[in-house]
Amino acid sequence: MHLVEPSTHLHPGSAEASASSNPPASASKRATSTSYDGTATNDPTSRHHRIMTDLESPSPAYSYDEDPYSLSASLKTDNEIDLIRANTSRKRDGYGPVTLNKAAYKAKKLQDFYEVQNENIQRWLKPVEQHIQSAKDFDGANHLKYQIAVRGSFAANILLAIIQIYGAVSSGGSLSLFTTMADAIFDPMSNITLIVCNRAVKHVDPMRFPSGKARIETAGNIVFCFLMTSVSFIIIVLSIMELQNPPKTDTKSFHIPSIVAISVAAVTKLALFAYCWTLRNVYSQIRILWEDHRNDLFINSFGLLTSVGGSKLKWWLDPMGAIVLSLLISTLWLHTAYSEFQLLIGVTADTKMLQWITYIAMTHSPLIKQIDTVRAYHSGPRLVVEVDIVMDREETLGVCHDTAEELQTKLESLPDVERAYVHIDFETSHKPEHFLKKEL
């Protein structure tokens, strides 16, 4: 779990900051944070002064309440970002790839940095309410696409399983095609697992599962991964047995219906892969389906190649292809299982999410003096957030409670956040509230 450790910084309402930015008088009541350092001298932004031209559009205007830390001043226009590369890589234009020119490479990296910085600043300065509404609008606009991806994949996988069973049986014993068949049979089971888990998450008994059932999706994915790995190991054993008992002929029989069946499956998987591409980073279920279609596309293509090779070139290409495919399937699904285990154990959120949560807490209320610690870690596909805020020790319990509760509600309304906990303190010199390793 990632910690944002305390560090001092100039608050926008302090005397030092006022000398340069001249914020309004209300700035002295704005919350400070020990998790943000605004005085660092190695900020790459300070090395490049803003160059305004007639082609540029001014940055959006933000009030002090919307942008108390003046982050919008660090926004770079598209023209400024283009000028960074133009000023450092004029000699490179037209002379080979970027990697051959260190100045051009550094300019590209700097451009990428400012593009990411612009994205982060614009994201932070956008009110939480707009993020919530945008997420609702996106879900509403993509609900039909989501249903088509899930249910369409399910229907297609059932048909493809039937087709590939026919292709494997009619092939006369091609282990490569039997490997693709085994993978195809388990695809509908994977879809059923996703659909059942999604319904289970939406229908929860709060008395039995007070923290929800979102992790059932992760657990279901792990179970399915190991089922696929087990089937792959069985195919490997059968392939080794066939290699130990070679046939009397140099090649196996060639069956056109089998080739047509696997070719149809490969084309269908290509279409499903392309359809799920746009939603793969939005819905965890679509991500699993997209990975499955991607894997099946390669597996069917490679299985078709080795099956044809066994019937036209050498017989051992077919069992060897089955072994390679099975090892590939096992590796891919074990990698997926490892990623799902990380989510179930509680791996930390990405840096962007931690920074965003920190900024929301810092700017939530003038009553919050500092931010002590920020944690965000996965509990299944969603996040659990812990924030320690520092308030005046003389403040009333009611005011502290209401401030913390409002922040908790705001954090829990963020997309991908399952639960948020806000702790109140009056200083930052103590050790973290929770041990990372509990002593028995």
Automatic annotation (TrEMBL):
* Cellular compartment(s): Membrane
Q: Where is the Cation efflux protein transmembrane domain?
A: 153-344
Which parts of this chain are annotated as the region Disordered?
A: 1-49
Return the GO cellular component terms, semicolon-separated.
Answer: membrane
Q: What is its membrane topology?
A: Multi-pass membrane protein
Transmembrane residues, as ranges?
A: 148-169, 175-197, 218-241, 253-277, 323-345
Its organism's taxonomic lineage begins at: Eukaryota, Fungi, Dikarya, Ascomycota, Pezizomycotina
Enumerate the GO terms in the molecular function aspect.
Answer: monoatomic cation transmembrane transporter activity
Q: Which InterPro entries match?
A: Cation_efflux_CTD (IPR027470), Cation_efflux_CTD_sf (IPR036837), Cation_efflux_TM (IPR058533), Cation_efflux_TMD_sf (IPR027469), CDF_Transporter (IPR050291)
Q: Which residues fall in a compositionally biased region of kind Low complexity? A: 12-31
Question: Pfam families this protein is in?
Answer: Cation_efflux, ZT_dimer
Question: From start to end residue, where is composition biased (Polar residues)?
Answer: 32-44
UniProt record, GO biological process: inorganic ion homeostasis; intracellular monoatomic cation homeostasis
The record's keywords, sorted A to Z, are: Membrane, Transmembrane, Transmembrane helix, Transport
Q: What is this protein called?
A: Cation diffusion facilitator 1
> Which segments constitute the Cation efflux protein cytoplasmic domain?
359-425
